[in-house]
């Protein structure tokens, strides 16, 4: 019901709202690549023409010279890169039509929507500068401040994404963006779903609300943007199958997955987050560019502020041996809290010779805490980690003919959590169809907070390592070749010292009793882990047919087996595209085949909301076959997919993690619909 009410409010709100002229198009910031946003349309026939009254007749008429193009509906990222909304229907949009709204090629989802994703690929260059609260398995769908977009639109624009879930539920992602005046834009968005799931105790639901705004003064000297985000993500936790034979033997009695026995049916975990973000800039010098200038001379000062509070909960009504015996208290009510405040002051300068250069100083305050101290005969575990980090940094970007250079550096001068961070990227355009890219990444920081300190009503899940764990040291180098004719090749090599992970210390006897999860603890690897990853993408087209291929190869060298990944992951989509019904509809239909080699797939711990390594069994080595029929009618994209079709006739040996089967065959329907006023 709340989804229906929200949809109606967004629909009628944008129809009734008066709209002013928007700002002139914003110049796109230099970046490695633009965001590929799943939204709107690019063809000129979809432009909207402003209607004015004719002075002589009083009738409305279209003013062609003042028409509004789809390129005027702009999306501005946290990094200030700008692109326009896009309603085309492509195979890349098919890959992004999921809970995360991004390509999940390197992820393996669980059976129900909104549950964790196991990793099939690893990247060591995209971690945040500061440690996070942890519970990383619960965070794939969480909107960080870097995930929030801002908008600049000439008329109100609404986007609705709907998709059916696994059982008794639906998914809705709704956005309304508009400009209150010529220079003030705002947006309201809600992302939510509920899915009961096929198994007896795996219901999941989300509610994520965001409000954004951005403002620019008439003289273009002062700019302001910000957002408010309130998010809640919760799910029932069962620990997986109690008896695997009920699933693997494919008996008729258990074709109804709700009849399969689970480890427990009384646990829940939840992520709750609230964030307030503000970013503003003032141009002290703003020399307008003329016909000879490719870049104006600008001197700007800026300030960024964010305050965020986050809670991770795990609750269980009764004690269960899967997490250990003799808990301190029952029912189990574990709660970790993290409150952070971030301030950054920036001075930036840019012109056509030097490019864009900036320096900054930032202050990061953190308070990670639990309700009480834990005092035992062996040790005393504190209830909080609190402090501040002061760091300095800078960034640079410039375009020199066919070269584009970009880099940033941060160095902590005071604080215990972080050390340094350095990123540099260079792209060289060989010609209009080919370019090469190189990048390096160096970072040093402490592991996430739940590695350093954790408290639970279960005795085995209490530790304090902030004085014994070292900073994780990461060095990565990347190479990329992007060709219109030969495809895209990306290769990265990473070396990681002090790699931190979760693992179980349970004995073979304890594992046989199903108590492996009860002995999961954080560890730090003394040796260096070397990770090589190469990914290749190429689409081959012939008339109305196309074959999209993606293949990834990974190799890990390590003294101890603490990082487990499949060696090969591949995805191939064969599809047909054509206009039908006298070009009233664009149709795209085909099959997608995904496969990854078997490996020691990480296991899942619901109490921590984390994956942990296991080297007892290999999983994987099975295909995933999907059949899709997608269509586009005006600005509406319609999606119909039969997921995991081959599960109808294949053996039930498909798992997303030990004890957690992947989803069975299911048909799901949905659409993405845009409205323009």
Mind explaining what this structure looks like?
- The chain is built from 5 helices and 39 strands.
- Helix content is 5%, strand content 51%.
- Residues 1-65 have low confidence and may be disordered.
- β11 (204-216) and β12 (222-237) form a beta hairpin.
- It is globular and about 75 Å long.
- It has a 22-stranded antiparallel beta barrel.
- The chain is mainly beta.
- It starts with a helix and ends with a strand.
- Residues 1-18 form the signal peptide.
- Kindly state the number of beta strands: 39
Radius of gyration: 26 Å
State the low-pLDDT regions, or none.
1-65
> Distance between termini?
26 Å
Sheet with most strands? 22 strands, antiparallel, barrel
| Proportion in β-strands | over 45%
Mean pLDDT across residues: 89
Gross morphology is globular
Put simply, the count of helices is: 5
Secondary-structure content class:
mainly beta
Keywords: Signal
Signal peptide: 1-18
Protein name: Porin
Organism: Flagellimonas halotolerans
Characteristic terms for this protein:
mainly beta, 22-stranded antiparallel β-barrel, 5 helices, 5% helix, disordered N terminus, signal, Porin
Topology (elements, then pairings):
Layout: H1 2-16, E1 51-53, E2 60-62, E3 74-76, E4 82-84, H2 91-96, E5 107-109, E6 117-119, E7 150-152, E8 157-164, E9 170-181, E10 184-195, E11 204-216, E12 222-237, H3 245-248, E13 267-287, E14 297-316, E15 332-351, E16 355-369, E17 374-375, E18 380-381, E19 384-400, E20 403-414, E21 418-431, E22 434-445, H4 449-452, E23 453-454, E24 463-464, E25 472-483, E26 487-497, E27 500-504, H5 508-512, E28 520-524, E29 529-542, E30 545-557, E31 568-580, E32 585-596, E33 603-605, E34 610-612, E35 623-633, E36 636-643, E37 655-657, E38 660-661, E39 666-676
Antiparallel strand pairs: 1-2, 3-4, 3-7, 5-6, 8-9, 8-39, 9-10, 10-11, 11-12, 12-13, 13-14, 14-15, 15-16, 16-19, 17-18, 19-20, 20-21, 21-22, 22-25, 23-24, 25-26, 26-29, 27-28, 29-30, 30-31, 31-32, 32-35, 33-34, 35-36, 36-39, 37-38
Organism: Flagellimonas halotolerans
Protein name: Porin
Signal peptide: 1-18
């Amino acid at each position: 019901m709340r989804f229906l009410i929200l949809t109606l409010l967004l629909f009628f709100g944008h129809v009734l709202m008066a709209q002013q002229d928007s700002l002139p198009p914003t110049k796109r910031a230099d970046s490695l690549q633009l965001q590929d946003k799943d939204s709107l349309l690019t063809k000129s026939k979809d432009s909207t023409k402003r209607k004015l009254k004719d002075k002589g007749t009083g009738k409305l008429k279209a003013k062609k010279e003042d028409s509004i193009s789809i390129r005027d509906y702009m999306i501005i990222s946290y990094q200030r890169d700008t692109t326009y909304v896009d309603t085309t229907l492509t195979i890349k949009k098919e890959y992004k039509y999921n809970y995360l709204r991004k390509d999940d090629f390197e992820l393996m989802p669980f059976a129900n929507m909104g549950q964790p994703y196991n990793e099939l690929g690893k990247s060591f260059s995209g971690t945040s500068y500061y440690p996070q609260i942890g519970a990383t398995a619960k965070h794939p769908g969480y909107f960080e401040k870097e995930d929030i977009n801002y908008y600049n639109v000439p008329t109100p624009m609404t986007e609705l994404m709907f998709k059916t879930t696994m059982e008794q539920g639906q998914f809705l992602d709704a956005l309304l963006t508009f400009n209150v005046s010529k220079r003030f834009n705002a947006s309201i968005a809600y992302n939510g779903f509920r899915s009961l799931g096929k198994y007896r105790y795996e219901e999941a639901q989300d509610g994520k609300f965001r409000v954004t705004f951005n403002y620019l003064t008439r003289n273009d000297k002062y700019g302001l943007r910000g957002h408010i985000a309130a998010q809640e993500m919760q799910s029932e936790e069962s620990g997986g199958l109690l008896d695997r034979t009920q699933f693997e033997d494919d008996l008729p009695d258990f074709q109804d997955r709700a009849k399969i026995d689970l480890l427990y049916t009384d646990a829940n975990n939840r992520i709750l987050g609230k964030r307030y973000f503000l970013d503003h800039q003032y141009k002290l010098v703003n020399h307008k560019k003329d016909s000879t200038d490719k870049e104006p001379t600008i001197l700007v000062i800026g300030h960024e502020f964010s305050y965020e509070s986050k809670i991770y909960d795990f609750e269980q009504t009764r004690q269960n041996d899967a997490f250990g015996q003799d808990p301190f208290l029952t029912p189990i009510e574990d709660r970790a809290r993290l409150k952070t405040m971030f301030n950054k002051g920036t001075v930036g300068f840019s012109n056509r010779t030097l490019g864009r250069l900036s320096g900054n100083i930032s202050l990061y305050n953190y308070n990670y805490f639990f309700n009480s101290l834990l005092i035992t005969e062996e040790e005393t575990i504190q209830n909080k980690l609190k402090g501040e980090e002061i760091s300095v940094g800078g960034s640079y970007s410039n375009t020199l003919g066919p070269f584009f250079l970009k880099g940033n550096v941060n160095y902590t001068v005071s604080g215990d959590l972080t050390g340094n961070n350095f990123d540099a990227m260079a792209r060289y355009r060989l010609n209009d169809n080919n370019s090469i890219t190189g990048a390096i990444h160096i970072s040093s920081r402490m592991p996430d907070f739940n590695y350093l300190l954790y408290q639970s009503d279960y005795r085995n899940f209490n530790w304090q390592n902030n004085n014994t764990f070292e900073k994780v040291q990461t060095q990565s180098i990347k190479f990329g070749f992007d060709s219109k004719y030969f495809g895209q090749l990306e290769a990265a090599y990473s070396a990681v010292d002090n790699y931190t992970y979760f693992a179980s210390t349970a004995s073979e006897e304890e594992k046989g009793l199903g108590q492996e999860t009860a002995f999961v603890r954080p560890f730090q690897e003394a040796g260096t882990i070397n990770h090589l990853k190469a990914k290749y993408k190429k689409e081959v087209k012939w008339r109305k047919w196309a074959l999209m291929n993606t293949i990834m190869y990974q190799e890990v060298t390590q003294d101890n087996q603490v990082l487990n990944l499949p060696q090969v992951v591949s995805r191939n989509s064969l599809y047909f595209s054509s206009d039908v019904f006298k070009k009233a509809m664009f149709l795209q239909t085909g099959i997608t085949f995904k496969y990854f080699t078997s490996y020691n797939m990480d296991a899942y711990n619901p109490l921590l909301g984390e994956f942990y390594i296991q080297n007892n069994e290999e999983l994987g080595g099975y295909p995933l076959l999907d059949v899709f029929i997608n269509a586009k009618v005006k600005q509406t994209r319609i999606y119909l997919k039969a997921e995991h079709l081959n599960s109808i006739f294949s053996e039930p040996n498909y798992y997303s993690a030990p004890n957690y089967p992947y989803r069975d065959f299911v048909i799901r329907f949905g659409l993405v619909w845009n409205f323009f006023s």
